[in-house]
Amino acid sequence: MPDRSPDSLAAMPTPGRRIVAVANQKGGVGKTTTTINLATALAAIGRRVLVVDLDPQGNASTGLGIDRNSRAHSSYELLIGAAGLRESARPTAIPKLSIVPSTVDLSGAELELVDAEHRCFRLRDALYADHAIDDYDYVLIDCPPSLNLITLNALTAADAVLVPLQCEFFALEGLSLLLKTVERVRANFNPELEILGVVLTMFDRRNRLSDQVAADVRGVLGDKVYDTVIPRNVRISEAPSHGKPALLYDLKCAGSQAYVRLASEVLRRERKRAA
Ligand SMILES: Nc1ncnc2c1ncn2[C@@H]1O[C@H](COP(=O)(O)OP(=O)(O)OP(=O)(O)O)[C@@H](O)[C@H]1O
Ligand SMILES: [Mg+2]
Questions:
Q1: CATH number of the domain residue 37 falls in
Q2: Which tens digit of pLDDT belongs to each residue from 194-246?
Q3: Does ligand 1 lie within 6 Å of residue 154's CB atom?
Q4: How would you class 259 by CB atoms within 10 Å of its CB: exposed for 0-12, middle for 13-18, buried for 19 or more?
Q5: Ligand 1: which residue has its CA nearest to atom 11?
Q6: Pair 139, 18: CB distance under 8 Å
Q7: Structure pTM?
Q8: 9 in a domain, yes or no?
Q9: C-alpha 153: how far from chain center
Q10: Which protein residue has the closest C-alpha to ligand 1 atom 10?
Q11: Best mutation site among 162, 199, 237, 247 for ligand 1, i.e. most ligand atoms within 8 A of its Cβ?
């Protein structure tokens, strides 16, 4: 498949706003990497994008170059209602890409919210207050590796879930739990929530298991699985330590090109859906 530059995507029409939770309770499957690079690709073609870092680890914030000492307002304040979206969001070095960073304080939010009213709606309420969400075309929420109250807030605020799935033996096992949680959220809090798609990550061409897992996942989930597969690529794993998305660190590497193709596929499917 020929490489596509973000420029070639710009011709696509703008669909309606999307709030996407990037979720999988399994750790280390590529949620943050997918959030950062998809967000960058969408911003590069002119979409106004917001990343909400909802993981106390703060990897999305670090990976987008936000220094730990300069996270005065964060997703913690947003969730507990101490700050609004316009105060919490800050620009990144990438034009049109903003972020609500996270700090370790967020790990306490779960306990603090346990008795709060509408505790699953905190993020949704914060995003929509004062129409602040209207500043963005895409909101990507980087979830923690857990199905806790923070993730429930993300799923309640989102209109779609993007699931990164690592090409490894137990890939499908955890997925059923995530899908059950999505059902629960749909039934109780957010009937409009849909699965945007499943993206296979860290695919290793030299490993036959990767092929097998990819075939199994496509067998079970059919066309919910994106055609685009993200390869295992060392440049992708190097990028966060430079505080840059892989797309800026090395646009030409196979991993970055895969994320550009993923952005293109996401938009193509959205256009189809809208038609
Ligand atoms: N395609 C890839 N090729 C090589 N390394 C990758 C790739 N995708 C992600 N990684 C690396 O794998 C590790 C886990 O990725 P990432 O942090 O995106 O996963 P995560 O699901 O967000 O993890 P967590 O559950 O801890 O939040 C990171 O070190 C990341 O740099
Ligand atoms: Mg992460």
A1: 3.40.50.300
A2: 999 999 999 998 888 888 989 999 999 999 999 999 999 999 999 999 999 99
A3: no
A4: buried
A5: 237
A6: yes
A7: 0.94
A8: no
A9: 14
A10: 237
A11: 237
